Each structure stands twice: as structure tokens, then as C-alpha cells.
């Protein structure tokens, strides 16, 4: 953020002041545009707004365009309906990639434009559909905006608005006021909000917080919050089992692995119970002993560190019981209420989409029962036709909440289920493959552990991930004798994460076969 501009400074009115707002559906771009027009008219100016709706990969993106100018000699000015590249004074972007889009459209220019942008992300479908990390690089956008704009004011306006119980349009209005880019004082902005009639106090809180941030004043609640390092387990409330596990981590394991072990214990206690987390530490302790024998200390215990991470992920698999447990938690209902902005006198219903397959049903049954059904294809297929249907259910209703709650209570019997047996067998085979390489090819052994990140999710997603894992691991016999085997294994995993159908992985496997 550059120098502060005097809020009372009168900008040139030889030409209309032009403002472009880029916002997605539900972000209040129309409300923000209406506020600006109402404020300009209240100050004796003439203003006009138009909008161009678009179809985006998120919730639809709209450009709202405003021009404003004082009336002269009783003649009304003629305003443009569309922004012209290189001729926009102020651009407000309600999301980081919308700011990047404004630069690509030529709306932001270094000799003229003040860019006010929220740095939070609303991911596009193309980003979310990737099996791996498909998010676009935000550094490219921030670098471009710093170069392209005359002045840039950018911070997380979404988080700031949420913390103040409002929506992003209020914090963007505050940032606009704090920027000094319009020749109106702060009271004029506040008067428009007060005339709205709904959510006035919350909107004013978000407005003022953003105003302080944009005008360079300290004590912003978002920026002042330090990043929390996860170097210790959160409070255990004196629980003796958890205290024992924490003390064991500190006493038995190398320092490099402790943060991940703390996280693993927390995750597995939440997934099952402290005893299950203790089993996790037992397994990691055995792997750490092998790591020491293989000279892992000279390599900063890279094998133990990755084992601590991915073993916890493997043991906390997503099954029907886990999904049901997460859906009926009170903390989830409370989180959704805050995100939606539900008031105390309002009722919230959440509609879930569920599409169970017979594979998941059998996996939840005791292993003997599940195998008995799976070994009878005709029965299995007949039952699958009954259950394998998409359903939209409201978890806030008595019947569905009670149903999901009953399924979540099956966590006590989880270790006897068919799914748990198969997860245990798969996990053991994976660890055997990794530990068998430690002496001969330590870096490749670490990469085999990292392959576990391919297995994730639930239902069809889990099946696809497991298939990719097996295909990547099928190259292990060809790579174990190569010095660059670890690099090729890493390339295969990266290829598997590029697309859902595994087309890139097919090509990478063919390349490995020709080595």
C-alpha cells in the first residue's frame, strides 16, 4: 500500500470518475455498486451503473461499471455503459483471481488505476478437480497487479468481513473509503450504509475495519494475528492417555518428526481413540528403529518424518463411519451457521448429497458379513441396485440426523469391519515395500512413502486414487536398481496428480518402461 491520499482532496472532474467492480455471485457486487451510486447522488453528483453478467467456473462473475460526474450548467452528462481498457480510475476486485482478470482485460493501468482487491481465493472448477494441488499461483497475480496498477490496496477482505459478521461488499466499501480515491469523506460512506436498513451495525464494523486497513492505520485484526506454528499438541485438558502420548513423542522420537507426530496423534485420537493413536506411535517407533540402522540420522531422519505424516493419513482413512461422524458434529453446524450468517431466531437446514455404493455398505459391515455378500455377485448386484442411488437429505431433520448419528456410533466396531481389514493389509504391503528399500536405495524408500498421498477421499474418489497408487507402484521393480529411481518415482507421482483419468500417468509409465 502506497502513500495515504487526503480524503477531502477534490479529484479532477474534467472527465467522469470511472469505477469497475469485479465480483462473483453472492459477493454483493450489486449492493456495492448501488452504495457508490447512492453516495455520489447524495453528494450532488450524477452517477450511472451498468452490469455485464458472465459465466465463470465458480458462481458466475459480473462486471459492474460506474461513472460519476457533477452536473454542469443544468446539463446531465452522458455516461458510458462499458469500461474501456486504459480508461478506468478505480478497480475493485472481490477475489484475487478477479484482480488478475482485470489486469488481463486492460482495465488496470500504471498511470491511472487504483486497484483495490481482496487477496482471498474462491477456487475455480479447474483448480478443484485436479487430484493434486491444482491451485493457480497467486504470486503471479500479485506481481502483475503491483506492476500494472498505479496504486494497489490488497488484503483479505473476506476474512475481515466474516470476523465482523458481515459480507465482503461492506469491507470493500470501507477499503474504497480508506483509499481516498473518491472525493467524499468517510461520513458520506457511512451515511449510505445506515440508510440500508438491514445489517447496519455489522456492515459498519466491517467497513471501519477495512477503512483502517486501507488508510494505513494499525491494529487490523487480520494482519495482527500471528501465524500459529504447530510445534506442540493443543491442550489435552489433562487427559492422561493423551498426556502419555505427548510425553512419549518427546522422549522417544527425533526432533525432526515431532511436529508431524503431534499432528498424527491428534488426528487419530479424533478418528478413533487414544489407543489407536498409541498403535500409530508403536508403528512409527519400529520404522524409526529401521531408519537409524539404515543411517537415517545423517539424512535428518527423512524416512521417519514422511512415515509420521503418511502413516497417520493411512490410518485415518475416510469411510462411511467417518463421513457420518463429521456431518453430525455440533461444531460443523455452528461453523456453517457462522459462514451463512444465520441469526439466533432463524432455522438452518443443510441439504447433503449422498450416493452410497454397495462397496461402502459391505466395508462398514463386520468383515465376515461383508465378504459373504461380496462372494455372492448376484446378491451383491441386486443390493447395489437398491442402495446405489443419489439422495439429497437434510441432516437437520430428526430422521436423517438420527440415522447418521447411528452410523457414526459404529466407530467402536470399526476395527472389525471389512474396510479396516483391507486398509490394514494395504498399509502393511506399502510399508514392507518402503522398508525393503531403505538400505539399498534410501531416497527411493522415502518416495515410496510419499506415494501414499495418491490414496485419498471416499467412494469413487478413493477407488481412483487407489488405482493410481497401484499403477505408480508397479514401476518399482524397474526403478529400485537405478540411482535416479527416486527422481523417476517422484515424476510418476506428479504425473498421477495432474489429471483425474490418469492420461499423463500412462505416458510417464511408458517412458519409464523404455529406460
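Q: What amino acid sequence fits the structure above?
A:
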Amino acid at each position: 500500500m502506497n502513500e495515504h491520499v487526503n480524503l477531502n482532496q477534490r479529484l479532477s472532474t474534467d472527465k467522469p470518475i470511472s469505477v469497475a467492480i469485479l465480483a462473483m455471485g453472492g459477493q454483493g457486487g450489486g449492493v456495492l455498486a448501488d452504495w457508490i451510486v447512492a453516495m455520489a447522488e447524495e453528494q450532488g453528483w450524477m452517477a450511472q451503473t451498468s452490469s455485464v453478467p458472465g459465466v465463470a467456473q465458480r458462481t458466475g462473475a459480473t462486471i459492474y461499471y460506474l461513472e460519476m460526474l457533477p452536473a454542469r450548467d443544468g446539463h446531465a452528462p452522458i455516461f458510458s455503459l462499458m469500461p474501456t481498457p486504459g480508461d478506468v480510475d478505480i478497480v475493485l476486485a472481490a477475489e484475487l483471481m478477479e484482480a488478475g482478470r482485470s489486469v488481463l482485460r486492460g482495465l488496470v493501468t500504471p498511470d491511472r488505476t487504483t486497484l483495490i482487491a481482496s487477496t482471498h481465493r474462491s477456487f475455480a472448477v479447474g483448480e478443484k478437480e485436479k487430484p493434486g494441488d491444482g491451485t493457480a499461483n497467486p504470486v503471479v497475480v500479485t506481481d502483475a497487479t503491483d506492476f500494472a496498477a498505479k496504486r494497489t490496496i490488497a488484503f483479505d477482505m473476506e476474512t475481515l468481513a466474516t470476523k465482523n459478521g458481515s459480507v465482503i461488499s461492506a469491507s470493500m466499501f470501507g477499503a474504497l473509503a480508506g483509499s481516498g480515491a473518491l472525493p467524499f469523506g468517510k461520513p458520506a460512506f457511512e451515511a449510505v450504509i445506515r440508510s440500508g436498513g438491514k445489517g447496519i451495525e455489522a456492515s459498519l464494523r466491517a467497513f471501519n475495519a477495512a477503512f483502517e486497513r486501507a488508510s494505513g492505520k494499525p491494529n487490523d485484526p487480520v494482519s495482527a494475528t500471528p501465524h500459529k506454528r504447530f510445534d506442540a499438541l493443543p491442550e489435552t485438558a489433562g487427559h492422561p492417555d493423551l498426556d502419555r502420548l505427548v510425553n512419549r513423542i518427546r522422549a522417544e522420537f527425533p526432533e525432526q518428526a515431532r511436529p508431524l507426530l503431534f499432528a498424527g496423534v491428534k488426528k487419530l485420537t479424533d478418528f478413533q481413540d487414544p489407543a489407536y493413536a498409541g498403535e500409530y506411535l508403536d508403528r512409527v517407533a519400529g520404522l524409526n528403529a529401521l531408519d537409524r540402522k539404515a543411517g537415517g540420522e545423517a539424512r535428518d531422519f527423512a524416512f521417519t518424518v514422511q512415515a509420521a505424516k503418511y502413516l497417520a493419513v493411512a490410518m485415518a482413512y475416510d469411510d462411511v463411519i467417518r463421513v457420518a461422524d463429521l456431518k453430525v458434529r455440533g461444531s460443523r453446524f455452528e461453523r456453517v451457521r457462522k459462514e451463512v450468517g444465520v441469526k439466533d431466531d432463524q432455522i438452518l437446514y443443510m441439504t447433503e448429497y449422498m450416493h452410497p455404493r454397495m462397496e461402502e455398505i459391505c466395508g462398514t459391515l463386520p468383515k465376515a458379513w461383508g465378504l459373504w455378500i461380496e462372494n455372492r455377485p448376484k446378491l451383491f448386484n441386486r443390493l447395489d441396485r437398491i442402495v446405489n442411488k443419489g439422495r439429497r437429505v437434510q441432516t437437520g431433520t430428526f430422521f436423517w440426523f438420527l440415522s447418521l448419528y447411528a452410523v457414526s456410533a459404529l466407530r467402536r466396531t470399526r476395527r472389525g469391519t471389512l474396510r479396516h481389514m483391507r486398509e490394514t493389509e494395504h498399509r502393511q504391503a506399502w510399508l514392507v515395500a518402503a522398508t525393503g528399500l531403505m538400505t539399498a536405495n534410501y531416497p527411493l524408500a522415502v518416495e515410496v512413502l510419499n506415494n501414499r498421498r495418491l490414496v485419498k477421499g471416499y467412494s469413487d474418489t478413493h477407488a481412483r486414487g487407489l488405482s493410481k497408487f497401484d499403477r505408480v507402484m508397479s514401476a518399482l521393480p524397474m526403478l529400485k536398481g537405478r540411482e535416479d529411481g527416486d527422481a523417476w518415482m517422484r515424476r510418476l507421482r506428479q504425473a498421477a496428480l495432474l489429471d483425474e483419468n490418469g492420461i499423463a500417468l500412462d505416458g510417464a509409465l511408458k517412458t519409464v518402461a523404455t529406460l
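Q: And what stands out in the fold?
A: The chain has a mean pLDDT of 85.
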